[in-house]
Amino acid sequence: MRTSTKILIIVTLLLVVPNVILTPYLLKGIVPTNDGFQFSFDVMAWVALGFQVLINITIGILFFRFLKSQRLTNAIFFSVVPLTLMYGVFMVYISDVKNKSDITSQAVRSTLNIATNENAYNNLLWAGLATLIYLIALFVIILFSCRPLSKVENITQKLGDGRMKFEDYKVGGGKQFKQIEHSLNKINYNYKEKENKIRLTNLEAQKFVPKELIKFFGKSGVHELELGNQIKKTATTLLCNLKSSGGQTVLSLEENFNYINSYFKVVTPLVKRYDGFTDRNTNEGLFCVFAKPQDAIECAHAILRAIDVKNKNQKELPPIDARISINTTDVTFAIVGDDERKIPSIISNAIDTCVKIEEINDYIGTKLLVSKQAIGELPQNFVFEHRYTGTLTTDFGQVPLFEDFSYYTKTKREKIKKLKNKFEAGVCAYNQRNYKEAKEIFEFILKYIPDDKPSFVYFNKADEKMKEVA
Predict the structure, then answer these.
(1) Cα angle vertex 321, ends 405, 305, to 5°?
(2) pTM of structure
(3) If I label 222, which of 151, 297, 382, 460 is the partner at 20 to 30 A Cα–Cα?
């Protein structure tokens, strides 16, 4: 019991004594007559009236607090029963007052203007008015008693839809609803705790399972991934090969690991920046996946520039030579492993194709090779300078390859652009086994671009083939 309630009970008990003493003075001030009631209050009657008002206020507050401490059914019962008794007493009295001969009854008849021949229907009017007031009072009692139910309904709908609130829900009402309010807030708290745990789990899992990969599965988090889930989508794969280009510095195993890892720290943020994700690190390099080929190509340019900058800033260590191979094809993403460990992975020939493109990339000395399939998916307004370097034959068909030479310096880029058609003619001549023509074309190109490695490789290969034929 609250302290304020205890004080109210004590005040009410203290008011009982003066009310018992002073009530006769109040009754003397209300005089019944044949024409109604006359009021002649003296000082004591007014004091008695004041004490009556006070004790009724304290009793009313105590009764209201009593109702709030009850369950809903008990609260409605204890509020409706007194009202119903008052209504019943009034209805019995109003119907029987015409048969009473005492002076008080005569005053009531005169005041209410009932029980006379001229106004025989006034009894019914007063009874109807009393019934209307009774029904309105019942409606108000039930409305205020059940009002918290609508709040509970609204809160449960929000919780059912997963809409959580970061402050406590307020229901109001009696003791029973306070318990319900506590339970709903506990459910809300548990929801928030679960949501926070899922969020932290997803953030932690993104270190191992990129969120871009989860999006490929059409899921919102790692917890939704199930063993056996798989989906086939057209995607662009990028294989970034990072190798030391030599040097006199000898590194220990730990130094070598930190050395290579420092370059990976440069590459992986760039992959994320261009909406890609790293699927795995292989002996062949860093294998990444993009939804759009233009993102992969722009990422490749950024990687090559970043590697160049790092090589210049890290002169005491051997520089890293970066080569990138890009291909667009249908890729199958799947969840493999067992019930205890689920591993999102790529199950596709896309990896093998990228590895083979990388082998050609390494062989002909290019920096960035892109397949025809990837170029075909580029937007029309995408600026992409490239030249045909040959065709890769796989078990799944032919894959024409193009060197992206927009990475080179402006001077070299202009020279390659000027001799692009001649270079591609030399490649076609070589593919058609017209080695003499191919050798002459590449010899011509090397006079203008001595450091053009693809032309140098094709020149040597054409020369070897001519010697074999001879």
Answers:
(1) 55
(2) 0.56
(3) 297
